[in-house]
């Protein structure tokens, strides 16, 4: 069983190497990508069942026991997030393949896209599974280095600026992370998370707070928490639709996961954290209000992404088993729905030839299928019953209501931000799908993959989007068993002992 | 808990402050050097996290009590490789940006300007100064601004 934990990291990186070798054959590259990600999904599902039945699955790399060597740990939270992330990655890959086929034909192979895509998946898997602070840094670097290439691929004069912003901000946050690791090691003499849990508790309170705040800032930048979010709406909308969908679905959520893991395991608090509650409110409100001001569809979605990071921070800030469980459920729901929305936005802009909401209109009559595909994830994001968004928000609100006076007040902001999300989505709906029909605009720049006006969308693109909508519906249908797992995951996070005992033995 | 000597603390303080100062500049080249300097600071700090200098471990030439902690060295080595690789990528990207835009400057976000234009109340001073056709085409007002102006490529840049 413990060899199984290494597969989600090994398979994609081997697949990346194979796709480099198969650079001549488009068909082989596509096949390798899909087979690898499907295999990782199966492994993640097996790990989730195993972690749920018998506790965390641990692999000691190189046979070195825990505090000395590096460990990979799959507990309920890691395995669940790994599963949903890989499924979403697979769907996005199918969409990207479809887009490439409709733009360039069936036979052109890509020398960079497939290897880099699989490397990004490697980084994400390692980030979820690693039980070691320095490996987490390495995982972030693999993931981010791959994302730098994806966001600056085939760049042009107008897009390079946003790519630079993204790379510079990410590098800065990585160097801050490195600084944090150095200080943590100097203070405790270990980088193993389970070992740190015991040793950090012995530190003086001032030092502990300093280290805790440093991790919040580091992962806060990666998670796009207000006031560290400015880079996100500037950079994400300038990548091709599948890349944006992947980034929006996964990268920020890995930041939230790292925050969740370190704040519960290494820097446990007692009761609701005021700092995180304030940050959660700011993130929710600033993100939602920012979205209302936008005219660019992708930027609007990016601001909503920032806003919903606040929801996850709120669950963490409540700081009890329910809150952490609610955050886990919210991450699962949000990875799916945010990726879906960006894919649908890609389909919409292919039809309209523009990202400006003002220049769109009457799309419901021309393509009713697209209208349905947009409406379902939009309502899910806003949290209308009986969607998965409602289930996830309910879990957070319950945690807020039972957490005390302060968290109950913040729960009010959760409702407010949800209403603002709904308002933003309704505005998009009215402007894009209703109103007078407008002729599609010509492609502003035929050389890039950003907006391809009036081009046909091939079947795989629709299939991938429909599949993601189905996954998010499945989350709502399976809400009972799923929330049982996330509640248990939240309880594990708060108890800390299952993780520590599994790692240190 | 490990403490470090004053010299190293001063060196670290200088590296971090110079790095962050350069990061806040508008020129891409300075930002890049800022990242490099900051990276040196972080790697030095990681190296120092192992404690004061001591004898080589593992080889068997010293007693275990005299060993230097090998783990931070391994971590620093990994981190140096990563920062090196990413700095190269950033350098290539900076060069690409210079080739494409002809300027070595981080530019403002056009869409941010457009949103600001749309939100500005009518009759405010700046809106008047920009002319009455802002409403129809906010892009032209933003595009005519100094930092967003598409510059002539390469020729003048190469001469510099």
Describe it.
Chain A has a two-stranded antiparallel ribbon with strand order 1-2. The model of chain A has no long low-confidence stretch (mean pLDDT 92). Chain A is mainly alpha-helical. In chain A, helix 3 packs antiparallel against helix 10, helix 4 packs antiparallel against helix 5 and helix 11 packs parallel to helix 17. Chain A has 20 helices and two strands. Chain A has one domain. Chain B has a domain of 96 residues. In chain B, helix 1 packs antiparallel against helix 2. The N and C termini of chain B lie far apart (51 Å). By secondary structure, chain B is mainly α. Chains A and B meet through helix 5 and helix 6 of A and helix 2, helix 3 and helix 4 of B.
Shape assignment of chain A = globular
Radius of gyration of chain B: 25 Å
What is the CA–CA distance across the termini of chain B?
A: 51 Å
Low-confidence stretches of chain A: none
SSE string of chain B: HHHHHHH
How can the largest sheet of chain B be summarized? none
Q: How many alpha or pi helices of chain A? A: 20
Number of strands of chain B: 0
* Major beta sheet summary of chain A: 2 strands, antiparallel
Strand content of chain A: under 5%
Strand order of the largest sheet of chain A: 1-2
Question: Alpha-carbon distance between the termini of chain A?
Answer: 16 Å
Catalogue the unreliable spans of chain B.
125-160
Query: What proportion strand of chain B?
Result: under 5%
